[in-house]
Design goal:
Length: 57
């Protein structure tokens, strides 16, 4: 996981502090999870098998 360290600038004019804190917390908790696509994993697997086969000969 790569957390995004964003410094939000909020100009919210509400009288409910709990709502403000929730909005700020939601912005700070954003993160991106990198998931390799199946094709990349397949190519890496085939390359690994090719290397193993080459070493056996």
């Amino acid at each position: 996981m790569i957390p995004l360290k964003l410094l939000p600038v909020l100009n919210v004019t509400t009288r409910d502090e709990a709502l403000d804190q929730t909005a700020i917390q939601d912005i700070r908790d954003n993160s991106i999870t990198l998931i390799p696509e199946p094709t990349s994993l397949g190519l890496l697997s085939l390359a690994g098998l090719a290397l193993l086969r080459r070493r056996r000969r």
